[in-house]
Write a structure and sequence with these properties.
9 helices, 6-stranded antiparallel barrel, single chain, alpha+beta
Length: 500
């Protein structure tokens, strides 16, 4: 959304042309549509929504980021002007009271403290943000401008818009704007709403490189008008560290520099090669399984044809017995009419013959019932042999943040009564994840009531679906679910079923 929205702003045309060209030439197109990104980076849990109240009235709304233990949050100072109560909402939607530690209007920075906040602080980068790296901004802003107040006369220490709590975190990519230098600050080309003030600027490794602030020189009256910022200005890392040091606050620092794109690509290529090899192996296994399934289906078909022939033979026998019975009855009536005396003498013989016929009929009926039952069993066997479930693809990141993906075949799940075991040990698990945070037998995937289910096998790192721990009782999975095996984070996609 970001680039194409900015293109509509006349004063940013010369910047946006460059930004669009960079997106097309040097970045994947999906990066230019960052609001549609599916990657839920773990660092975003450190981003909070900042709410400023005057009494019970929501005065202003923006973003902030946890930068140290004990709930230390840095945000944009102008968001808190004239407010007497400060509230933060963490990534889980928990509402916490906060107190002001210090505000600096010149740098538009303020520090709040929410002692009950449990979110982990964001790690500071070793180096300042660079125009050679990928940058990202995450915060709580509206995709459209806020609703202006219907009546507002003059400046009365109140925003000219109706502040509303943003329901969910948003994020977007950002690039350096080299067209004009801001003394002491970083200028960016990006797309976000007014609520993005106070949001963190993060490098490709998920490390803090700056905090979004208001445009230098902007008045409070301008900032409190409903608007969508064109581009953004960020407080650089050096100023953030100096401001926190003046308050005796020591943030966490990264142990090593963030890897370059080339180094990251090499790691990704190695992981991709492993994925290709694994996919080839899985494809070969799938081909063998398909051949076996076809052979089983052909045998079931042959058995069905034999059962059909047996049923036809039984029907023919029944017709023959019926004809014999009819002939005997006809002959018996003829004998009775000709000589009642002979009929009386041979009554015992007649009833014996009738009994034999009845027994024969019963035997034929029992044979027919057995034939039909065997046919039903064969039909069920054929149905089971031809049953299928869509292949399940898991994609995500392992505990070292390297890409990972694996495919679980739907036919394997259907043909195994107890499903497939996911784990680190190839001798104990059918789906192997080579990660130290994954147990030897970590979890079990199985089909129940035509849905994919998962249950934890007492793993050390635990199994979670959409952040919720999975017990030994199991839980159902659908496309789009986030499944964590230890620290391996994956997204599930159930592919369309194939017909055998």
């Amino acid at each position: 959304m970001g680039v194409f929205y900015l293109a509509a702003r006349a004063r940013a045309k010369h910047k946006l042309g460059l930004f669009g060209l960079l997106c097309l030439l040097s970045l994947p197109f999906s990066w230019c549509l960052a609001d549609q990104a599916e990657n839920q980076s773990s660092w975003r849990t450190a981003v909070v929504q900042v709410l400023a109240y005057k009494g019970d009235e929501l005065y202003n709304q923006g973003s902030g980021v946890v930068v140290a233990d004990d709930g230390v949050i840095i945000t944009s100072a102008h968001l808190l002007e004239y407010a007497d109560k400060y509230v933060v909402l963490d990534s889980q939607g928990q509402e916490l009271q906060a107190v002001m530690v210090k505000a600096d209007a010149a740098s538009d920075m303020a520090v709040l403290r929410a002692a009950s906040l449990t979110s982990s602080p964001l790690i500071f980068s070793q180096a300042a943000a660079s125009d050679k790296g990928t940058l990202e901004v995450a915060g709580y802003w509206h995709k459209t401008e806020e609703t202006p107040r219907s009546t507002f006369f003059g400046f009365s220490n109140k925003p000219k818009f109706v502040a509303v709590i943003v329901p969910e975190l948003k994020w977007t990519k950002a690039l350096f704007d080299t067209s004009q230098e801001e003394t002491g600050y970083v200028k960016l080309v990006t797309a976000m709403g007014r609520g993005g003030y106070g949001a963190p600027l993060v490098n490709r490794c998920g490390q803090l490189s700056g905090v979004i602030r208001s445009k230098p020189g902007a008045t409070l009256k301008e900032l409190w008008r409903a608007h969508t910022p064109v581009g953004a200005t960020a407080v650089p890392l050096s100023r953030l560290e100096s401001f926190l040091a003046s308050l005796s606050i020591s943030p966490l620092k990264a142990d090593s520099p963030c890897l370059s794109v080339v180094e990251q690509q090499k790691l990704a290529e190695a992981a991709k090669q492993q994925e290709v090899e694994a996919a080839k192996k899985q494809a070969k296994e799938a081909e063998d399984a398909a051949k076996k399934a076809k052979a089983d289906a052909d045998k079931a078909k042959e058995d069905t044809q034999q059962e059909r022939q047996a049923r036809e033979d039984a029907e023919k026998e029944r017709e023959e017995i019926t004809t014999i019975v009819a002939d005997i009855n006809s002959n018996a009536e003829l004998i009775d009419s000709e000589n009642a005396h002979i009929k009386k003498q041979n009554q015992t013989l007649f009833w014996g013959a009738v009994a034999a016929i009845v027994i024969g009929v019963l035997i034929a009926v029992l044979l027919l019932i057995k034939r039909r039952k065997d046919l039903s069993v064969a039909s069920k066997a054929l149905l089971a042999a031809s049953a299928s479930f869509g292949d399940c693809r898991f994609e995500g990141r392992d505990s070292s943040n390297a890409p990972i993906a694996f495919l679980v075949l739907g036919k394997d799940l259907m043909q195994r009564q107890n499903g497939l075991v996911v784990g680190r040990n190839p001798e104990l698990a059918q789906v192997v994840i080579a990660d130290d945070t994954v147990s030897r037998q970590h979890a079990q995937l199985y089909i129940k009531e035509n849905y994919l289910h998962i249950k934890d096998l007492g793993s050390t790192g635990g199994t979670r679906v959409n952040g919720v721990a999975v017990s030994e009782e199991g839980a159902a999975l659908i496309t789009g679910d986030k499944v964590d095996f230890g620290q391996v984070q994956c997204t599930l996609t159930v592919l369309e079923r194939t017909k055998s």
